[in-house]
Amino acid sequence: MSTTTTQPPAPGPGMGSPRINLRSGTLPRRFPAALLASCAAVVAGVLLAFSSFGFLLWGVLTAVAYVVIAVTASARVEGGRKAKDRLVTSIVYMCFLLAMLPLASVLWTVFTNGMNRLDIYFLSVSMNGVLPSMDAGGAYHAIVGTLAITGMATLISVPIGVMTAVYLVEYAQGRMKQLLMFFVDVMTGIPSIVAGLFVVALWMVLFGPGHTNGAAGAIALAVLMIPVVVRSSEEMLRLVPQDLREAAYALGVPRWRTITKVVLPTSAAGLTTGIMLAIARVIGETAPLILTAGTSAVSINWNLFDGQMMNLPVFIYSQVRMGGAINYERAWAAALTLILVVMLLFFLARMIGGLFAPKAR
Amino acid sequence: MAKRIDVSGLHVYYGDFLAVADVSMTIEPRSVTAFIGSSGCGKSTFLRALNRMHEVTPGARAEGKVLLDDLDIYAPGVDPVMVRTEVGMVFQKANPFPTMSIYDNVIAGARLNNRRMSKSEADDLVEGSLRGANLWEEVKDRLNKPGAGLSGGQQQRLCIARATAVKPSVLLMDEPCSALDPISTLAIEDLIHELKEDYTIVIVTHNMQQAARVSDRTAFFNLSAPGKPGQLIEMGETNQIFTRPEKKETENYITGRFG
Prior knowledge:
The complex is a heterodimer.
Chain A: H1 31-49, H2 55-77, H3 80-114, H4 120-124, H5 140-171, H6 174-188, H7 192-207, H8 214-239, H9 242-250, H10 255-266, H11 268-283, H12 287-292, H13 312-322, H14 325-356
Helix pairs in contact in A: 1-2, 2-3, 3-14, 5-8, 5-11, 5-13, 6-8, 7-8, 8-11, 9-10, 11-14, 13-14
Chain B: E1 5-14, E2 17-27, E3 32-36, H1 43-49, E4 60-68, E5 71-72, H2 80-86, E6 87-90, H3 102-106, H4 108-112, H5 119-132, H6 136-139, H7 152-165, E7 170-174, H8 182-195, E8 200-204, H9 208-214, E9 217-223, E10 230-237, H10 238-243, H11 248-254
Parallel strand pairs in B: 3-8, 3-9, 6-7, 7-8
Antiparallel strand pairs in B: 1-2, 1-4, 4-5, 9-10
Helix pairs in contact in B: 5-7, 7-8
């Protein structure tokens, strides 16, 4: 072993080292916010002066003015690299706003229109004995149907989907694996109405004509859900480090126990999120449910195997088709209910995922 | 408890690629054997072949004999899962199970194998294993906290405790200190000294001082050219390998005059 001493080269005056300037001009920290505010104010003033104020025009002109001034100022004061940085930053923010705009608009429209009719009464009564044009009735039967059908679809597709993913990640090799992955991809691309037709045909063979019930809808949704569950679960299982599997094998743990006791618990949070996304994907499906669960149920029906079953998307669809003002109100309220149900499910999933997630301390 | 390992004519393949060719050696019980050699020379592969862990890699297989006392672990009908309960392993990167507490990590081997044991038995096993790994004093007040919250060196000792809790007769260590600071490394090396009273220990290391410090016997692996299979060049008493190696290649490697 040798000892080494390191001596920093002594910098000092008279060493002749060239002075490097590491500083550059900087715009004040509040510059972007201040500039944006003043641009907005000036553009608004000009537009009002010409009495041609419109929100779209105002937004676009403000953005253009902000980008031009900010980039020019930055190029003058801070130099080229920072100017480019400001340009790209502005563009990224604008793209973000542009993407958020439709979302916010949809939520706002649904919320304002839906609130007209959404109340405890709407959520707690069915349309049983209510004429479509009467100022009464609610969506309780549709909520029941949505929960029952989606719940059943989840019960069918989660075991199949997760086990397929386990097979793909832990066991499958070569040809079989590629074939299976190909078919999962094909299944992902099935149009939802085709899934509905598949179940209609299946029911026709099994039970004869005229059988529409919730179970048929659940199976149609399961067909749509399975590939989504497989895909997301597969990604999550691949994220589990190989180290952990080897650690378990090295303790003399058989493979299946390694999967059930180490791999699945480690990825539980991710699996939950994936399953929730799959539920969100199918909970708004309308076409297959029109074909399979029927459009004319008006009463509360918890039984998946007995008769037609209303659900929120089909409820919205049939109300809109009736065309009266009261029907539109019901449709909007049902749409808002559907969004709230999905949000509630996501909230629950986050909580469940948080419980499962590996903790550091 | 500790067992002798007799390897004769072992070849390890990854698919068609011969990774380790024709290794024969004897690993003494209650001693530490170090494997040294440059990266990619097959020493880790060979180590993993000693408890059939290489089979986890698709396409990997081994030919030859590995006798554990007098049982050939490659004999037909031998279950690799049972082999691994006899021959434990500690990895380069500490890998405690992230969903389990420190306590559960230590008894993971027993729990995951569904062995029934009473609460007091489990408590004793956890305390005994953690004491054996010199970790008990540091974690006894937080046994129910996740193992991932420990420092790197503590995690590695937790993994050693976990490996010893299934009561193996051999402990394989694949560069157990390469991700640790000198203090933690020292703690692990001290631990290896204590563990060799009860176990047969095989350690792969890139650190030649470490090999010289901890091991009784040293084996040097090398490959003749890139793409060629790794071979055992020389094996002997650590002292002799580091002072009077018989082969020129060994001398070149330990004196640092290599590639």
